[in-house]
Specification:
CATH superfamily of the largest domain: Fumarylacetoacetase-like, C-terminal domain
CATH architecture of the largest domain: Alpha-Beta Complex
Order of helices and strands: EEEHHEEHEEEEEHEEHHEHEEHEEE
Number of domains: 2
Oligomer: single chain
Number of strands: 18
């Protein structure tokens, strides 16, 4: 099953994808679907107004998750090619909900950065509340997966040893377009091709089978520290090919188009524009 959050006139709506149509589920977004009793089961059978999938305007899949947890240094080949040892534990940082945008929204490039970089990532969407999960509980807590691009201001990220300040610029992180449930995605540890293009040039290409810490590992680890809630996001890290690691380095500028795609999960396509917010 595939779910999405779309924008309609004056509101948003959670929808189920049925071929060329989107069926409203009676709730405002995918996060509220997951938080409802028997949310996914109800979503599979709910019936409501239908909309054409072509031309739909996708909002952020989960507009207000209680947590967005991100993972660094998690593709084994990328870690080794950078000359680093494989980490013993996941490298974690957080994002805030205000960074999230829809699958086709413009990415707001801050005037304060000269090193605006891309990071294609598989994201786990949590479907039930869980704390100190064992393996079976972690698997069961995964509602499904989606696509994220963890756009990063590298010059701010590396100002200090902590990465948060490079990762939390408003309206920079596209997510969606769909939540693909774990059964349809290939199980709780899917092996899916990940690809990122900038202006039609392939920059990243890998497979999630190379993850050092897989989705189940990450749900177990994060839930040991803090309760995970329905709609929370865990972004699992990016493969090699980011702009900062290239020779010469390449970074995003206004007018660039970034396409992020994961096999079976969908495609983000976003234009980079100057940040006009105050």
């Amino acid at each position: 099953m595939k779910l999405a959050t779309i924008r309609l006139e004056g509101r948003t709506a959670a929808v189920r994808v049925e071929g060329d149509h989107l069926v409203e589920l009676g709730l405002p977004d995918v996060g509220t679907v997951l938080a409802a009793p028997d949310g996914l089961a109800t979503a599979a059978t709910a019936d409501g107004p239908r909309h054409a999938a072509v031309g739909a305007e996708f909002a952020a899949l989960v507009p207000r998750p209680t947590k967005v947890i991100c993972v660094g240094l998690n593709y084994q080949k990328h870690i080794k090619e950078m000359g680093r040892d494989l980490p013993e534990f996941p490298t974690l940082f957080a994002k805030f909900a205000d960074v999230l945008i829809g699958a086709h929204d413009d990415i707001q490039r801050p005037a304060e950065t000269e090193q605006f970089d891309w990071e294609a990532e598989l994201a786990v969407v949590v479907g039930r509340q869980v704390r100190r999960a064992d393996e079976a509980e972690a698997e069961a807590a995964i509602a499904g997966f989606t696509v994220v691009n963890d756009i990063t201001c590298r010059d701010w990220q590396f100002r200090t040893r902590e990465w948060l300040q490079g990762k939390n610029w408003e309206s920079t992180t596209p997510i969606g377009p769909y939540l693909v449930t774990r059964d349809e995605a290939g199980g709780p540890r899917p092996a899916l091709d990940v690809r990122c293009e900038v202006n039609g040039r392939v920059m990243q290409q890998d497979n999630t089978a190379d993850l050092l810490f897989d989705p189940v590992d990450l749900v177990r680890y994060v839930s040991t520290m803090i309760r995970l809630n329905p709609g929370d996001i865990i972004s699992t890290g990016t493969p090699g090919g980011v702009g900062q690691a290239r020779t010469p380095q390449v970074f995003l500028r206004e007018g660039d188009t970034v396409v992020t795609e994961i096999q079976g999960l969908g495609r983000l396509e976003n234009r980079v524009v100057a940040d006009g917010s105050q």
